[in-house]
Amino acid sequence: MAKKTPISLEGAVMTDAGLNYKGVIMEPVIEKCEGCERIVPFESSNYCPSYAKPSAKWAKGACNFATHTRNEAGKGGKAKVNPLKASKRAARGR
Ligand code: SF4
Asked: What is the whole-number distance in angstroms between the Cα of residue 16 and the centre of ligand 1?
């Protein structure tokens, strides 16, 4: 359960299928990831070294690895973020 140090996408290769990082195709981060410290820019997109598919991660609720929602999630114990509000908030903050 050691805390991972920030990962870079060193060695990642852009392929026709997407960004290939150690054999895994990485999908770019989604809007809800905005502000997360785990985001790693690679070429013209941003990627998440923690999750290959951020959209799938968020589809189940707030990403438990998100650094920008952790405080909210920590207060009530369980993350209870309205995804619509969260994305609106993210949009406004830019
Ligand atoms: S850790 Fe979660 S919120 Fe952060 S970039 Fe990855 S998928 Fe997005």
From this structure: 23
